[in-house]
Amino acid sequence: MSDALDELADFVSTQELHRILQERGASVSLATTYRIVQSMADDGLLDVLRADDGEARYRRCEAHGHHHHLVCRRCGKAVEIEAPTVEAWASRIAAENGYTALEHTVEIFGLCPECSAAVAAEHSEE
Amino acid sequence: MSDALDELADFVSTQELHRILQERGASVSLATTYRIVQSMADDGLLDVLRADDGEARYRRCEAHGHHHHLVCRRCGKAVEIEAPTVEAWASRIAAENGYTALEHTVEIFGLCPECSAAVAAEHSEE
DNA sequence: ATTCTTGCAAACCCTTTGCAAGCTA
DNA sequence: TAGCTTGCAAAGGGTTTGCAAGAAT
Fold first, then answer.
1. Nucleotides of D under 7 A from a protein CB
2. CA of B52: how far to CAs of A24, A64, A104, B25, in Å?
3. In what order do the strands lie in the sheet with B46-50?
4. How far is CA B34 from CA B2, B15, B17, in A?
5. What are the tens digits of pLDDT across the range B89-103?
6. Is A56 helix (H, G, I), strand (E, B) or coil?
7. Could you give the domains of chain A?
8. In angstroms, rounded to a whole number, what is the distance separating the alpha carbons of residues A46 and A39?
9. Is any Cβ of chain B less than 8 angstroms from the Cβ of A106?
10. Which of A40, A84, A110, B26 could form a disulfide with B21, with the two C-beta atoms 3.0–4.6 Å apart?
């Protein structure tokens, strides 16, 4: 069930999650995986991120309020970050332009320490 | 051709763009529209944004380097904004966590003045 | 004639959904 | 039994691509 998601520290797509569940022997169909993930996301239990390819990636969300992420684009490892300065900046900018009903996305992508090293190693081999 | 895109001040999906082109009498197929948009995006001529539904939206980019947007989620109208403070903040946060090869997305969504009014009107009618 | 561009339709991928079967209360 | 959960397969929606016809050089 959704218990499995609890262990997920990183962002995974529903398809990846399904694969992981299968590997662990859990008998869950893709459809059900999608259903679980969707309902959890609706309940605000998961953070959602859209990859550049349009695939949605989810992550168990510790935090309660509004926050952002520093995500490794290679392994999905994520660090939750807060950005009070950015929040204020966003509100100000929006107000200056007369925009209302605000929302914003602030995500930083990069390579985590491990993946930075891994990639560097790959390059030196070539 | 791609000339048509020049007039686009706002973010549109490829499908919308195709519809617009058709209405103007241009005979372009959906496939070609996708091809044009994709190549322009590859050349950095367009800004790309992913909607929550996974649809990609493009906008003619004035092309002066890195910048962000304040986008109306109803009509797509966008204002280009700069955020030196945020850039610095992002670099710092990432560095503190040992992340490299950074990239970040900072987009503010809301309702532009016109749409704010329109929505308010709709509500008062109900 | 060679090369690039276009359209069409089929293929892809992620995601959602109808429906019948299995559980649960 | 009434109601919710699940799996399967089909359908949906956006996007890409193989291939043959047409335009450009």
1. 5-10, 14-18
2. 31, 21, 12, 31
3. B12-13, B56-60, B46-50
4. 11, 8, 9
5. 999 999 999 998 888
6. strand
7. 1-60 (1.10.10.10), 64-126 (3.30.1490.190)
8. 9
9. yes
10. B26
